[in-house]
């Protein structure tokens, strides 16, 4: 369930992230579309405003022509010179406004053509008005009035202004419709975009809310699991303590009777010459079995003591070559295969160590080499100097250790899987105890192995300074 909840949270997070990405993309697209629609709307509005300005200039030009005609007629009918000033101002304004109108319709060829024709008619009409004024000044009043009252060109000019105005109004209406459509399109687009964005935003918020809710559930579940794990850990620690107490008690209780039985068995061995061969073998088997039980009890005690406190070591200068020779000699009593090789010209290599504990390590390594080499393979023990350190290697050609087991071979109560295939006895304590002893000596215990080809166990200790090496050393000089 917890895995499903985690997967759901991951999916919610991915969904929220996807919605956010889509939302950002849509916001960008909406902004682009809105910008283009807005630009189109502004362009249409500018077109409408432009047409309105054109219509205003047309009307202003027509008003100026009308003012010029009125001023000319007033002067001819009254002879008042004030009308001449009004006429001059109106005529000048007509040309100025027509020039401005020409600039405004420069982007419309049809209106430009109409304006050019209008400009010709305006020039003719203003020429007629100027001619009538000149005749009035020379006293030819009748002729001036005839020209002033003739409306033919004035009607044509009015028609030209009307055509120009009608065309611009048509253009204005079309542009106004386009502007209204652009405004409607922009509004609809904005509304739709806002609705879509709001929906996506709501989806993102909903996904985030669900993610937080599921995370809260996961955190609550983790809290429960943590409580259960603590309870399980406490129960495991209690069980381990009960087991260790039992092992310690059992080892203590077994050690005394086993020592007594072993002593009696050894006593029988000293008088076994008088026994029948079958009885001699039985006595030897009893002694070896009791000795194994005693060693097992000692290992159990070592395990419980090592977990409670570091071992008490009596460190003294020790000839490692002599000690190793003794261990090999002891092994020869049960198996003649182990051979000793000393890779040092002096034949002595001194370290500071606890003789009993170091002997325990070497005995364990050599016993394992003998036990796990069932087919009579060679076993070689090498003592050599490696710089400022001394190394003892125990090499066998036995069953070896699988690669997956190498990382656990020194764990307490661990045995390699292939050891069970050969029905070898043991609790998986010897290598654990050996490594702990080497660690408290400031040394190392390492292994190289290949399944089916054998193993090499190596212990290393710092070589003792020469001053210590020259002192009397612990260790015997038994033969190998």
Task: Describe this protein's structure.
The protein is of the alpha+beta class. The C terminus is likely disordered. A hairpin with a 2-residue loop joins β4 and β5. The protein has a five-stranded mixed sheet. The protein has two domains: 211 residues, Four Helix Bundle (Hemerythrin (Met), subunit A) (Up-down Bundle); 156 residues, Heat Shock Protein 90 (2-Layer Sandwich), CATH 3.30.565.10.
Alpha-beta classification: alpha+beta
How far from one another are the termini?
65 Å
Number of domains: 2
So how many helices?
A: 11
Kindly report the average pLDDT value.
80
Give the oligomeric state.
single chain
Radius of gyration: 59 Å
Give the name of the CATH architecture of the largest domain. Up-down Bundle
Relative strand content: 5-15%
The description of the largest β-sheet is:
5 strands, mixed
CATH H level, superfamily name of the largest domain: Aspartate receptor, ligand-binding domain
CATH class of the largest domain, please? Answer: Mainly Alpha
Q: Report strand order across the widest sheet.
A: 2-4-5-7-6
Spatial shape? rod-shaped
CATH topology of the largest domain: Four Helix Bundle (Hemerythrin (Met), subunit A)
Q: Name the poorly predicted regions.
A: 476-480
Helix content: over 70%
Order of helices and strands: HHHHHHEHEEHEEHHEEH
Number of strands: 7
């Amino acid at each position: 369930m917890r895995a499903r909840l985690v997967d759901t949270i991951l999916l919610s997070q991915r969904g929220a992230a996807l919605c956010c990405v889509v939302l950002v993309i849509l916001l960008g697209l909406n902004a682009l579309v809105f910008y283009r629609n807005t630009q189109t709307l502004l362009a249409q509005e500018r077109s409408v405003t432009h047409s309105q300005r054109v219509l205003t200039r047309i009307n202003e030009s027509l008003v100026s022509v009308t003012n010029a005609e009125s001023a000319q007629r007033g002067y001819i009918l009254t002879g008042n010179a004030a009308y001449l000033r009004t006429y001059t101002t109106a005529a000048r304004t007509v040309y100025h406004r027509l020039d401005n109108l020409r600039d405004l319709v420069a982007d419309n060829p049809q209106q430009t053509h109409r304006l050019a024709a209008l400009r010709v008619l305006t020039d003719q009409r203003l020429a007629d008005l100027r001619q009538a004024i000149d005749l009035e000044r020379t006293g030819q009043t009748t002729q001036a009035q005839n020209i002033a009252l003739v409306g033919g060109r004035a009607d044509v000019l009015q028609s030209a202004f009307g055509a120009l105005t009608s065309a611009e109004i048509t253009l204005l209406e079309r542009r106004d419709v386009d502007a209204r459509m652009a405004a409607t399109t922009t509004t609809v687009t904005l509304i739709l975009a806002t609705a879509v964005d709001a929906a996506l935003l709501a989806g993102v918020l909903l996904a985030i809310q669900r993610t937080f809710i599921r995370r809260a559930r996961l955190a609550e579940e983790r809290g429960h699991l943590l409580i259960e794990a603590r309870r399980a850990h406490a129960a495991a620690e209690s069980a381990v303590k009960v087991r260790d107490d039992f092992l310690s008690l059992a080892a203590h209780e077994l050690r005394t009777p086993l020592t007594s039985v072993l002593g009696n068995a050894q006593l029988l061995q000293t008088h076994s010459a008088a026994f029948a061969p079958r009885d001699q073998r039985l006595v030897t088997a009893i002694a070896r079995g009791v000795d194994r039980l005693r060693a097992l009890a000692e290992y159990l005690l070592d395990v419980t003591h090592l977990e409670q406190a570091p071992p008490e070591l009596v460190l003294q200068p020790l000839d490692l070559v002599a000690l190793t020779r003794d261990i090999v000699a002891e092994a020869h009593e049960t198996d003649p295969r182990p051979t000793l090789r000393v890779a040092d010209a002096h034949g002595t290599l001194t370290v500071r160590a606890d003789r009993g504990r170091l002997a325990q390590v070497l005995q364990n390594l050599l016993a394992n080499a003998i036990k796990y080499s069932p087919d009579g393979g060679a076993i070689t023990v090498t003592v050599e100097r490696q710089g400022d350190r001394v190394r003892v290697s125990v090499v066998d050609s036995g069953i070896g250790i699988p690669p997956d087991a190498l990382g656990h071979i020194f764990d307490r109560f661990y045995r390699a899987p292939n050891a069970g295939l050969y029905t070898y006895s043991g609790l998986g304590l010897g290598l654990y105890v050996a490594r702990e002893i080497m660690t408290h000596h400031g040394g190392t215990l390492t292994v190289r192995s290949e399944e089916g080809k054998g193993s090499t166990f190596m212990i290393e200790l710092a070589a003792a300074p020469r001053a210590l090496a020259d002192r009397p050393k612990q260790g015997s000089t038994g033969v190998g």
